[in-house]
Amino acid sequence: MKIIVVDDEPLVKQYIVQCVRDAGGENEITAAVTSGAKVLQEMKTNPADVVFADITMPKMDGIELLQELRRQYPGTAVVMLTCHDDFEYARAAMQNGAKDYILKTEVSADKIRAVLDKLQSSRQQHISESAVQQIGRSRFLRNMVEQSEDMTPVSAVDLQENSIYLNERAFLTVVFLNQGQNAEIMQKNMQEHFENPLFYAYSEQEVYLLVNIRRNAFAEEQDAAAYFYQCAERLNGGIGCSGVHHHFTNLPKSFAEAVRDFDARFYQVSAQKLPHEIHVSEVETCIMRATIKLTDGDIQGGCADLERLLQCAENYKVRSSFLRETVQQLFSGLAVKLEPELQHTADAVASCCTFAALCEAVREGIAVLQRKHGVGYS
Questions:
Q1: Which residue from 193, 227, 198 is spatially nearest to 213, judged by alpha carbons?
Q2: Does position 327 have pLDDT exceeding 70, yes or no?
Q3: What's the CA gap between 279 and 312, in Å, rounded?
Q4: Which CATH architecture has domain 2-123?
Q5: Nearest Cα to 279, choosing from 247, 240, 320?
């Protein structure tokens, strides 16, 4: 663990540093300073896992430093160093979130080692619990996206158990392509109007955002979706938005609305014209036939099947994320087996936010195949 020691008495500070070093273990003193301000300065460039802080210091005392560290660096553990007559300070420190305190008269390598072992154990437990929570939340949200048949009506308890901090006051779902820093752009631009954001990366391409609308953020709640459509102009990719809902039982409906809105914008049609059937098998059949013919050297037949794939997708309006992912995998495989230049086609397909753009990318790939491998006898 990375450790900072702060004490306004240089000799005491040096003694504590030596005790930390003598305690052994995989610990590193990253700084030893004499004021709280210097601790905050060090934390900006090299954040520590643990801060040993004197509780009585001039200008910024240990309690003030503790409060600031808790606000800016909640993952950093603070251990207070105190004297016998500072018991009230020590109690205040524990109430403000200090992990432990040590009497200066009892500081030793053994005492420091015991405290660090305790912190390390707590840290590992927290990491394990967080991982379990993340797995549970991911499963819960995946079922929401995929509209699992065994999903029961969503309740406040379900959200609480999966660490989702949403309330029933006006929420909506947004789905968008994850191109580079799109999630970061969304996060920065919506703080004034929205709260309790939850980002869920469903795949390498799709990210879902579940969010509450702040009170009085818009004249009409329906304006919230328009706000995200304006955000889409700054993003490199498509976007879909649900309507505004007020009850957790509508959460699956909110996700479904966002998906249909995204697909409608991808195919540039109204949501009412989208079929409710998935038509996965038809697309998979076209892709399988194209792959077999192309890898066997039948370039003309394989390219004809790619055109049939596009026609099939347009007729059935298949789920846009499924279409992008399968076509991307097709060209990535062909890039390895047949022509490296086709990896550019695969990358272009992954970033397409309209069906027209995807058709253009696929036909450019077809042109590469025909140009590099010709159309003739196998």
A1: 193
A2: yes
A3: 9
A4: 3-Layer(aba) Sandwich (3.40)
A5: 320
